[in-house]
Amino acid sequence: MRSLKITSILILLSLLSSCAFQPLKFRNFNMDKVENNGEVRTFTGKLVVDNPNGYPIQVKRGNFTVSNDPLTLGDCKILEKRTLPRNGAETVDFQLNVKNKALLLGGLQQLGSLLTGGEAKVTIQGEIKACTYGIFCKKYRVNESLKLKL
Description:
Layout: H1 2-17, E1 25-37, E2 40-51, E3 57-68, E4 71-78, E5 82-84, E6 88-99, H2 100-109, H3 111-116, E7 119-132, E8 136-149
Antiparallel strand pairs: 1-2, 2-6, 3-4, 3-5, 3-7, 4-6, 7-8
């Protein structure tokens, strides 16, 4: 009887651990607040994250580099844990630290778009640590391009 329980648990664990995360999708990158701390500006904002998986995923942390082709603007991190509903979306708070020099150079690169009211393309690269059911955790790479309205 005891071996049947252990076998059942092992089969269940192997089935759950073989579930691969489908990549999360990012959209609606919005800035809420800006603070100037000398040479660094700190932007806080919200990012809508879509979970295409059939099970809830808890996003524990994420560290990203934000760039505007060839220029690295700064580092971004997720501020708090958030549970994404299955086949749904959730808003995640983030913090972006940008050096003033990089912000100025990025603004000069996008001057044409600024004048015409266009969009800037921003690339987010990094890792997210996500867990399912609080047990199975996995880090996976993120490489997303987003368009920001200027």
